Amino acid sequence: MKLICGPMATISHPAFRILVERFGGCDEYFTEMINAGSLLNFGPFEKYYIDPVPCPEKIVWQLTGSDAPRMKEAAKKLVELPGIGLDVNMGCSAPDIYKTGAGIGWMTKDRAETEEMIKAVRSVVPSDKRLSVKLRLGDEDFTEQGFFDFCDMLVGEGVELLTLHPRTKKEKLSRPPRYKYCQQLAERYNGKVPVYLNGNVKDKASFDFAKTACPDVAGVMISRAAVQKPWIFQEFNDSSNCKLTGKSVNMEELCLEYIDLIEEYQPQEFWKTRLQRFYTYFCMNFAFSHYAQTQFINAAGKGNEELRNTIKEFFEKCPEERQKKLNIIG
User: Fold this and answer.
1) Is the Cβ–Cβ distance between 153 and 115 less than 8 Å?
2) N or C: which end of the chain has fewer CB within 10 A?
């Protein structure tokens, strides 16, 4: 079963992939959403969104947009880059995304319009690249028949893989994902169109639960939990040869190193938001997580040197937090 690092705004960039790779990595990395219009307009920051470092061969470029012509033209550019292929975002439920007709907006439009867009994108994806779609169940009034008919349309137009986050548009993370639909999709296409499961996998127990509930899915996608634990993919490594077995990590060094990576691979205009988002999740490793979050996030707003000093002060006050033993048995 494949392990996939999911697309996350302000997170799924080279600096984060480098961090995950240093702990053994995963099978595929989905990029953060690349806006079709911005890419075509040659925005000043687009080069940072399409940097495939450090493992071009594992990259899946995720594309978002609200109209077929620009999606097609942007897809042309992305499939020229190295990587596994292209993923069309039909799952983002953030209001500022779906209200423009992008993200999950494609699941609520007239079916013919969405079909036209997929057909247009498919026409420019070469045979050596994969076309996939990441989606949800749909709007709150979704029906099983409507959902499966929608997926059949995607497959009929040449989509080669589906990643399902089995919640509706408004369902929050507090509601358990309906894994049964991931399994039903996998059974429906019987391996001809692989299905990835996305949602609520955060440790070995939840990973095992998801595998038991959906034995026929081809992969499990992990997002926020990978930010908290960049080594999480190795927690699911059944090999007794796992290099991280019995190891510990110096959390202070990791926190400081991530600032260096952000400075190297992200424009200065992005430093604050990228660092604040990362530490929001990563600080959950600490016993005094809320205190660490507040201190690190506030410091990041004042500049990177302030953040570095704050991190050093935190570990001076809480030396017991410096070393963390990894929960990897092998």
Assistant:
1) yes
2) C
